[in-house]
Amino acid sequence: MIGDNSKFRALYQREKIKIEERLNNALMYREPVSLYNPAAYILKSGGKRLRPILVLFATKATGGKFSQAYNAAVAVEMLHNFTLVHDDIMDNADKRRGRLTLHKKYDLSTAILAGDSLLSVAYEYLIKDSEDHFKEILDSFTHGLVEVCEGQSMDKEFELLNEVSLEDYLLMIGKKTAAMAEMCCIIGANIAGASKQTIKAMAAYGRNIGIAFQIQDDLLDISGNETQFGKFVGGDLVEGKKTYLFLKAFERASGKDKKKLLRIITEKGIKRFEIPKFKELYSNLGVLEDAKEEILRYSNKALSELKYLNKEKDKDLFYWLTDSLIKRNR
Amino acid sequence: MIGDNSKFRALYQREKIKIEERLNNALMYREPVSLYNPAAYILKSGGKRLRPILVLFATKATGGKFSQAYNAAVAVEMLHNFTLVHDDIMDNADKRRGRLTLHKKYDLSTAILAGDSLLSVAYEYLIKDSEDHFKEILDSFTHGLVEVCEGQSMDKEFELLNEVSLEDYLLMIGKKTAAMAEMCCIIGANIAGASKQTIKAMAAYGRNIGIAFQIQDDLLDISGNETQFGKFVGGDLVEGKKTYLFLKAFERASGKDKKKLLRIITEKGIKRFEIPKFKELYSNLGVLEDAKEEILRYSNKALSELKYLNKEKDKDLFYWLTDSLIKRNR
């Protein structure tokens, strides 16, 4: 497996580069440049490119070829970047991956419109290939878009609420994060012309790995390595975000601890110097362990769906991908 | 024809009501309400519903039935409303059709997201019916979306430029307004399964009537009846907008007149009490007549495309629609 792992890593890297070439070329000669230059700026900001990779891997694992899936891969990455641009406006974020956010680099109007145009070009790429399962692909992409809007709305709503249940939180990340991963897997399997059963299994893989991925993100915020994670540790606490860790801790705490946690809500976040104190509280309440267990539980649920894949090599690829996602440090 | 006209008017009204019922129901039971209530608010703000009517009429005139086209009609109206919500943010507009704009009634985040979700549900409606010409319909809708983003970007760009040519202006309204009308006609004709030639003719009808419609809008701003127009006369001058009238006047003026017009650009608009003076200038330069001629020219170009329609009654319907659009006073 170790030899395979480095092969899989190389494959990921190689395909990531191909996707980025396509993303770079996609908007290059389009006009007006006042619209497409800002849109190209966000597409160049790097990242894991996990969503397009999911499309490619799902296509291949269910019997198709990478070459059939590049346009759809570009489409899902553009859709993802559309959400990033608009979310950054809503969160009033100054930076993303170390660079200015679009509305800070340009202005509000430019950012709104660049986001809109990324979505428009995403659909353009999605419908470039007239596949056999065109309708199913369109359905899935559109459903993913609907869900991501709903998830973001719930997320903004939760910021204003004093009480959010873990159940609501899971519903929200299901829509905001997991729906996108599910969509990528469904699209890939449809491109390959997979059976209904296989598509369903791949969808469940995507949904579960998406949830695991988001809880992992919440966990990394407090336990990650500062340099590798790319942002300072404890940012969610400072912003008063209702993460998995916070909600689990709040559910579990009582007395003084509960009061301390309540402060995160009422004062809309804590000071930076208080982070270690709260990290210790999380640790004492056992919620870091809870998060790790949940991540494993959802990953295993995801992996259990891979039984419908025919080739061991494809299973191995997805095992490696899943493993590297939940062992990542950024 | 007079008898027919009142029949056509009644038909428009009847179908407009049906579309509005569908628009009202579309978001009613959807969650989260924090997303869909604001989206429903803008859908209820009235208007001519011209775009969905174009879809219905184009479907019928090319051999289809209204009943085949309602979902697509809802889709184009939602797409239109998505552009209104985002444009209002970019224009910092307080009111639309006498009601608060979405970002004023709620807030910026809600408005951005409500706009996004209108677009997402628009695609949902568009792909509800799996027509024979599904791919062509998706292509046209997506192309319309791309163009409307490009047109809005050009419009915002023009605000910052000291010189805009009439040619550039026509390119901009071609994308921002006419592309949408063209798209509606193409979708309608595809729903009906019309021939390539008929689809092309309907597209040209839509494109030309869209240009005529926009120049008419520019003309109404200065010559319209205050009460019927719904906003005060001369608003474009006060805002320093580079309309057809302004650009034509600027092209034609010299000496003192040119200097006066230049003020509209350099001072980014005039005072309200100055409107009559500038209206007189427009009148002296003959640009009100120019606009009327252009509107007629584009309408006639549009009408000339109707020769491909088979039934006289369908032609009459489009003649009536075209006529009522260019004779409208709001």
Described by the principal axes of the CA atoms, the overall outline of chain A is: globular
State the helix count of chain A.
Answer: 16
Order of helices and strands of chain A: HHHHEEHHHHHHHHHHHH
Under CATH, the homologous superfamily of chain A reads Farnesyl Diphosphate Synthase
- The domain count of chain A comes to 1
Strand content of chain A: under 5%
Corresponding CATH architecture of chain A: Orthogonal Bundle
Kindly describe this structure.
Two copies of one chain form a homodimer. Chain A has 330 residues and is mostly helical. The first copy, chain A, has a single domain, classed as Farnesyl Diphosphate Synthase (Orthogonal Bundle). Helices cover 75% and strands 1% of the residues of chain A. Chain A contains 16 helices and two strands. In chain A, strands 1-2 form a two-stranded antiparallel sheet. In chain A, a hairpin with a 2-residue loop joins strand 1 and strand 2. In chain A, helix 2 crosses helix 6 and helix 7 runs antiparallel to helix 8. The radius of gyration of chain A is 20 Å and the shape is globular. The model of chain A has no long low-confidence stretch (mean pLDDT 95). At the A-B interface, helix 4, helix 6 and helix 7 of A face helix 4, helix 6 and helix 7 of B.
